[in-house]
């Protein structure tokens, strides 16, 4: 199942090649070589299994650097030096003869994006939920499809779901995993993330094969397997993967379960994320009554929460993940971004499900921004007057999918901005494409003009995972047909195919 397993034995030969001089472009060399063994290099790492040893100096030269760090701001014609996985300097004209040079003279250099809510496993059932309501989704996805997932499907879903994120410039995801049908499913999903080479907070959730037990006012506490994961698998050796709990919360489980689950997360010292407020309000009030609010809690959707509830989230240091496109389609309510900001909650953006919408953060972030502006404008419009200014700025929107996302996941000291000392998670957008040139305001280019097609180069933890528009992940390339077959099998066994075609 895992590439870790079938890659053992190839490490030695790979190191030999790396030592023979394939340092800077090791990722490219392996990804493009037909004879390459499956290995970490196929995950786009270009390093040994520990993540050390290959590309330790990269110089991103002469770019428009949009740091999202208030002390650094936007710098034109600046160089970003990456050493041992961290950003070491951002200055003009850095000289480093030993570094692998990435020419960014036609690029906008951004922090890698942070997607704070993704059910990564659904990549194999891409594009089926576009006509579903929320209740239809719960009934079909969590009532039928999720039960058909085997560990192999979980692996492929997470591998491809994560690679899709990297391809679109997103370097960190919160993976909300709710098909923990067996520990093997969970291990396979974690392996999928590892083989993708993404930075992820893996939010271990409940099984997906018995939605009545786990999702309908559930009296069953979180699966014990979380203790094994905490002891044995996290944080991952390369430091890219860490653990969270995906809990049902007050909308889907009893007060006793909510209390037990949050206390367990706190005992383990890991954050917890929950869906809340998309069926009705009052959930955060309930958490408040139970004395459970805290800065380790992430709230997803939140559409029907009251202003008071957002103030409670804000006062307790919690965060919101808004996933506007899915929320608006499925009837959860209007996106709550503005309410979260007003209440002082950490505002962030997520994709939610590629079974429904595209996985790129450009789309969701822009939608989050423009929907909120429309909501803010509407009272003025209804008075028959003209607005005097827009509410949220483009720069604020860029923060939502970078530094605020990092804050929402408790990772802001390590990622979320281009700041010397932080891990080197970096996305380059081509500034000379037909849809991006000319760049008069690089922030507006990133927020309003750019899309997946303009993502040129992506680094995670200093490792190049995409360069010149090419993804470095031969594992994904080789397994793509497996993903297609996996998705077809799952849908067929869910009763959603007729004559081999999706019907719903
Ligand atoms: Zn969700």
Automatic annotation (TrEMBL):
Gene3D superfamilies named among the record's database cross-references: Metal-dependent hydrolases, Urease, subunit C, domain 1
Entry-linked InterPro entries: Amidohydro-rel, Metal-dep_hydrolase_composite, Metal_Hydrolase, MTA/SAH_deaminase, TAT_signal
Record field: transmembrane: none
PROSITE patterns assigned to the protein according to its UniProt record, in alphabetical order: TAT (PS51318)
Pfam families documented for this protein: Amidohydro_1
Superkingdom of the source species: Archaea
UniProt-recorded name of the protein: Amidohydrolase family protein
Naturally occurring in which organism (per UniProt): Halogeometricum luteum
